[in-house]
Amino acid sequence: MNDGVTTMGLWAMLLLEGIMVFEVAGCDGFVEATRQYLDGRISRMNYVNQLRELLAHERAREEASGMAQTPVDPQKDV
User: Fold this and answer.
1) Does some domain include residue 77?
2) Which domain holds residue 30?
């Protein structure tokens, strides 16, 4: 196990890498990738790359199904 990795430390590391935990947590494979990282089976770089791939796959799936969230433009009248 990677010594000194706490939940908050893990979240902070992901935020520094530009990955929002709440976006990737629901992706298939997140738990297994996190377990592999915490067990020391994959490096931090491989872990971050896996999460980016999971997130990209999830976003592509949402776009294909028409469920992608469109950003809100605060300048437009609702």
Assistant:
1) no
2) 7-65
